[in-house]
Amino acid sequence: MGIDWSQAPEGATHYRAAGGMYYGGFYRHEANGDWFFFVDGSWEFMGAPDESEAHPLIPRPTKPEPKEWDGETSFPPMGAKCEVQMGSYWYAGEVIGATKEAVWFKSDDRSDYWTIMNGLSIRPIRTQAERERIDTIVKAKYAAEDVVGFEVDEAICAALYDANLLRKPAEEVGREELAELSAKALTVRCGTMLEEWQYDTLADAILSKYNLTEK
After folding, report:
1. Mean pLDDT for all residues in the chain
2. Other Cβ atoms within 10 Å of 127 Cβ, number
3. What is the CATH architecture of 81-124?
4. Which of 19, 65, 140, 166 makes an SS bond possible with 157, Cβ 3.0 to 4.6 Å?
5. What is the mean pLDDT of residues 21-38?
6. Can you give the residue ranges of every domain in the chain?
């Protein structure tokens, strides 16, 4: 008979089936060697239990350590920490089951469970540095749009970040350098041309709202 560990009381480390002289139920073994038996809703101290081949003390299974997944295979292995896309948002969580065709995913934030069939909607979890990069780029984009009054392509702010212009004090960032790089980013990455005054306005917008990025 399988053991339903979801019903185990907090702190339970072992289980033993009833039989003969042995009490059936959950046990707790502490680091100092003490043993406790769970009865009538509480832990009762007991001596060290006898060993029995017929009625062994079964240790509680340990949760597997989260595995790294590089995203190269179609689906991550069981236990991998990753992110799953639902709508426009990515949720971090853990793979709790996997086959060659699908994975079963548990969200960290909402404790939701999802079955993922499409490999494109799951990716390796981002590092703290990657999260900070994206956060800074998005803040710079919104800061610029608030002032210039038109949509700023995220590729511009990504180029500014990668050139280290969003990661040093505002007084060290040159207006001409920002305008020039913004123009280059739009032309090369987006194939879009703006008027020269718009590049200058964009540079002024980022500088005027620079404290928003705190970089």
Report:
1. 75
2. 9
3. Roll (2.30)
4. 140
5. 86
6. 5-59, 81-124, 128-212
Single out the residue of 38, 48, 30 nearest to residue 9, CA to CA. 38
pTM greater than 0.85 (yes/no): no
Token output for 63: 């949760």
Say how many C-beta atoms besides its own lie within 10 A of residue 9's C-beta.
12
Alpha helices in the chain, H assignment, sequence order: 128-148, 154-162, 175-185, 196-208
pLDDT digits (tens, 9 = 90+) for 88-115: 678 888 888 888 788 888 888 767 888 8
Tokens encoding 39: 């009865």
Strands (E), the chain: 14-16, 25-29, 35-39, 42-46, 58-59, 81-86, 89-98, 103-107, 113-116, 122-124
Instruction: Tell me the two tokens of residue 182.
Output: 């913004």
pLDDT at res. 30: 92
